[in-house]
Amino acid sequence: MTAAAGWDMVRSGPADAEHSVLLLPGGWCTAVFYSELMAEPSLAGVRLVAVTLPGNGGTPPPADLRIEAYARLSAELAADLGCDVVLGHSVGANVALEMAGSGAFRGPLVLLAPSFSRQDEAMVIRVLDRLSRVLGPLPFAAMRTMMRFAVKDSPLTEDRLAVLVAELQKNDPRFMRDGIHSYLNYLDRYGSVATRLGASGVPAWVVHGQTGDGGVTEEERRTLQAYSAIRIVTIPGGSFFTPNEEPALVARLVVEALKAATISPVPD
Fold this sequence. Notes:
This protein has helices at residues 35-38, 67-81, 91-101, 123-135, 138-145, 147-150, 158-168, 173-190, 194-200, 218-225, 242-245, 247-263, and strands spanning 8-12, 20-24, 47-52, 85-89, 109-112, 204-211, 230-238. It has 268 residues and is of the alpha/beta class. The protein has a domain at 8-116 and 191-263: Rossmann fold (3-Layer(aba) Sandwich). Strands 1-3-2-4-5-6-7 form a seven-stranded mixed beta sheet, with helices on both faces. Helix 10 links the parallel strand 6 (204-211) and strand 7. It is globular. The mean pLDDT is 92.
């Protein structure tokens, strides 16, 4: 059985393309969230494989919800698929970061809206995590019901938002609670994973909107800027679903990452 068995995935581009990119969506999101990026003309010759991280979007969860476990599974998948670059959004970006931090993946990364510490994560997520310790999955069940209102400021069309919200609402509140708690514990274990990314030595593009998708502390920004392999990209204004709202920008960064993978591979 290959590592690709059992993953919910969407593919685009030539099956025999010279380069392949693994796309990891954010928490509670599915492979469907990468449709806009897959339609970008500049990536037409690249094999793109978008996956749903197990447990998200109502898929069967793994036994181990730790980010380190997701990173191992994703690294095995990237190797099985022959991916040159990994792109992740939100929690998916943290999984990609851990793939590099653990040494399981040595190619370039494009990280959209990662959190380097608990402080970076949206306040509402942190509050829900605390409430769920007393109320169980009920806070996340309520959030699932109100998901449409949570993304009301996104510039996406009403029809597209309806599709994405429907994907988000497939999630089991118990998994939402357990997954977020495990994710925040991961950030707490390191205090900040900014140094973990930098020390990996892999080329990485760290992308954040000025508002809407969490943030980066000034100390973390200085830490990241100290590593020549890391480039910080700030999107003007708000950003919520970066791959959907800024597909041309993200596609351009993927092309840059693929060039880095070809010209400057990370030494063993």
